[in-house]
Amino acid sequence: MGAFGESVAGLPSMLRKLSVQNRSPAELRRLAAERREQASSQTGKIKRLLLEEARLLDFQAESRIWIAERRSVSYELAAFFAKVSSRMELAPADERSLLTGAMPPRHAQKGELLIEQEEETSSLVILCSGMARAVRTLLDGRQQIVAVFVAGDTLNATDLPFRQARNSISALTPAICLSIPLRHLDTLLTGHPAIARALWLDAAAQSAIQQEWMVGLGRHQAQARLAHFICEVSCRLQFSGSSADDSFEFPLTQRELGDTLGLSPVHVNRTLQLLRGQGLIELSHQKLTIRNKSGLYELAEFDPRYLGGSRFADRGAT
Amino acid sequence: MGAFGESVAGLPSMLRKLSVQNRSPAELRRLAAERREQASSQTGKIKRLLLEEARLLDFQAESRIWIAERRSVSYELAAFFAKVSSRMELAPADERSLLTGAMPPRHAQKGELLIEQEEETSSLVILCSGMARAVRTLLDGRQQIVAVFVAGDTLNATDLPFRQARNSISALTPAICLSIPLRHLDTLLTGHPAIARALWLDAAAQSAIQQEWMVGLGRHQAQARLAHFICEVSCRLQFSGSSADDSFEFPLTQRELGDTLGLSPVHVNRTLQLLRGQGLIELSHQKLTIRNKSGLYELAEFDPRYLGGSRFADRGAT
DNA sequence: CGGCCGTTTGAGCCACATCAACCGGGGTGG
DNA sequence: CCACCCCGGTTGATGTGGCTCAAACGGCCG
Asked: How do strand A143-149 and strand B123-129 relate by DSSP bridges?
């Protein structure tokens, strides 16, 4: 399934034929565009193959960029640092130290499992690109999504102290993440108090978001819950730099939305229609557009301050 | 209202007449017992006065013990240290340093506000004794309790990095808490990495509990939710040393239970009756007894491992 | 073409909310 | 000392938001 994210050697033979290794990211992207071009005039199996090839080429290009940038300061962790330093300063020296011990970035496909429930935690995992979700499965098979992650979030800052993952985390989109082994982290913590603070901060931010979800789950009904979640994801994507305006990729299916909001998939559907009908949002094919932001905020009783994006919010205090 | 908790000088004149200052905690407790004795043979206003006096005497005795012990290592923070060190070691030197900068302990009455929503956070607050709850109030006046604290918990480890309290925290029982000013904490964090880790750990533990609540709110129905909450409180009280067996003071009203579990007070009542009827628990006059622990655990799908009490749980690994 | 997954729509039902009334205890005022 | 009230708990009647079951539709993939 997800073998080609591991390393260049693991790529499907189809790609190898193009001698991907010797090409620059820009070239790869150009090739991908070509493939798509060709695909548009084809049908059936050939079209599918071309599109798949284009997708893989794009993916490889993205990987190349990450790998290339790895030699410079801390490109991969940029999102993480941006988030942390929007609230507290992390000196360049700290950043470099954190990066030194990181393992090679991992590329995961959509749906791929990043962390398995019950598995022992051996490293801190930071999501550098894409989105992910943490899900808890009950005995009867029902599920509850307890967290959604965007670029810059740590996936397991809240599990790490317990040395065990309490729920499974899988990718909602193609994702890139970086692992920092516990051994390395331990030595870092003693020498770099700012890093310990950053982890504390991250866990605290996670907790703030969870409290907001609890309020929704406990006291709001479907419309407000859904609206609030959309507002939150929108803001977090903007804060992390993954999205610039109020239209963005929204990779959750209605079933997953239901598992997030404590609703059944059918009711999510009906509730979405309500929001659409009120002209608040548009959503189709994983693409979400907020049509009436203030209306949506009001319906959700949404106040983005809890996301701590002080740098972005109106009030620039602190 | 809550003036007499501040200092000895702030006590009501009634108590001053007894020259409380010169008496030992044991004497004070004896006096309190005498008052109660006398009260039992009285009625009306006199009885009430005597009981109130007894209560204040007991309270003062308790305060005395805390104040007296303050000179020794870290008695007040014992619960906090116990919790932290059940998972990681905190050297005595760290403990002493943490204590050095603490302000005098604050004694709060039942119901008293410890932290106010929106207020700026100026210190880390640790609950040394008693219970407390964090509540979020919605625009329409409905409330959701987003956290319950027992002795040893930090009240605002998850708000501190944001410099602002996101919800109000008030005492569920008479409580004692200790504040460590941010100024002091900041210097500590650079010199004592273990303290930074402890804070991280505490925020992570908080997050683990919240995830559990989210699963309950989203996917369990009333009985399981209620049962789970009871199991959790029971375990946390035991881990913190506040309770030894499966019978303990349970200070939440049914309204508060509803605000915790996302239910209406009436439904909480009916659900309690169900649990009582199945012989799982007893509850009256703020006193809760677990009659059938395994049955309750099963109904709640409760697995105490998420509370991280590795020292107490069956599996003593790590 | 057929199967699968996500979405959509309809019909009936249930868990829980809401409204309302009553009870018991402790505190308060006359 | 009593009347009153407020609050927390209890119980019943009725309404409803959201679940469940079921079926149809469309896009994507084999």
From this structure: unpaired
